[in-house]
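Researcher: Batch entry, complex prediction.
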Amino acid sequence: MKAQRVRADDAALLDPGSREWDSVTSSELALEPTPITAQPSLYLQAKWKAKPYGATSRLSVRAAHNGERFYFHLSWPDDTSNDGIRDTDQFADAAAVLFPVKRDAPLQSMGSPEQPVNAWYWRPDGDPMSVTASGVGTTVRHGNGSLQAAASYESGGWRVVISRPMVVNQEGMVQLRSSWRRKVAFAVWQGANQERGGLKAVTLEWEPLEIEA
Amino acid sequence: MAPNPPKVKRQLAAVFDMNKCLGCQTCTIACKTLWTDEEGMEYMWWNIVSTMPGKGTPKDWQELGGGFPNGGDPAPSRIPTVNEYGEAWEFNYEDVFYGGNGLSKHLQPKSGDANWGALWDEDEASGEYPNSYFFYLQMICMHCTNPACLAACPRQAIYKRVEDGIVLIDQERCNGYRFCMEACPYKRIYFNHNTKVAQKCILCYPRLEEGVAPACFRQCPGRVRFLGYLDDEDSAVHKLVRRWKVALPLHPEYGTEPNVYYVPPLSPPSFDADGDVIEGSERIPRSYLESLFGPEVNRVLDKLKAEMEMVRRGEKSEILDTLIAYEWKHMFGGFARDPSTLKRPA
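Model: Structure tokens for the complex:
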């Protein structure tokens, strides 16, 4: 996947419906449920072994930057907009972009103690969050970490832009620079199906990310 | 198989004597005003006293699954809805009490039709008059030896304190996934709609750390609630649970080894068709009590009846004297400090 360099201002790129995004090439990614055996509690495995999760099977991703900020435009079909938690048994839709902080962090285990990962996590009912992890069940939320996001739900799907300065002065966060090559992975949670935590649809491999000079 | 229980050095436990409970909910309000009176917690009842036989709180919690049935694999369950827990309704007080509408409007929840709430079936009896019966079931977090909530959490946000076995949810680590709310077979965990994390009874650990019994224990006018370390041979809890074995866990088949024990309810006798007492009869069916406490309940009830018979003969019963709790300070396993002697936090 290529992150195209664009000459557009922040306001335009932060609008998921902006014409600026028309010129950015879209990558169509296949998503799969996280493996049931990777779910970190026996309860989760017992409850979900015969119950489908990871209901979102495809994700369109556009990546762009303007030299200062980096932007992902994510869109996926979703019959139901779950934009908040209105009852104890309800969950919000969500999406995340995941980066290895160091070169070869394992994806399926959400990093390792030596090779942590950094996620940009979006949910419609709150600020985006910067999250780090060094293994399954170890995620730590770090506030918004200079992230910005905007989203719209229309005609049966979500369109989300999530953005961050390419370089941030914060330990453990991914850094992005023009002409670098990084890796990236994606996850989508379907709130209507009570997906949360490890119950999600993911890209099973890292996608190469080429940042245009 | 159920996972191995977390290791602790000591275990605090409670005994609730169901025979003394008035159903006054003073415990419920003591807890509510101390811990769950903030925004997002309106519907929470970390302590609740339900009428049994009944649907309980949340509605039909005994039918929902969870736990490690008979020590086996975790059983799937689901998260009860706010309606099942019982919504904290706002009422139309201003409509009824002001503007001269007293004869035309009636008091009702503002949210419209109400068909269930916390304690909806309070004091509804089972059986046929004059042989109707009910009793009260006092519920808090069971602070289980093998907590299903702890095992279900993918983030290790729930832990069991090594020094006293109290089960706590780390409010910083909790991400609000609510697997714990599913897995707890007693359904004693709530979701805070404001902070978006799971919350439950903490056995008033900040009071315990100052030597004061939990609010629901201390404020119970019926002297229903005993507290103590299970291994403290001087504590009433140890005597009732370990030595005399007259207090039983609720639903032991759930497999989580709860640390709240119950002295099961004795029954008044039944009347026959002529209105005469049937000697030796019991109005609460043993089969129903077995469904709550297992077959051991028969031994305990027979034991309690034998002790009462002893006292009627003029003999002394240490078991009944302990349950009567002539001196309240003897009920709390040493946690008898007067809370008014504590410094209030600034």
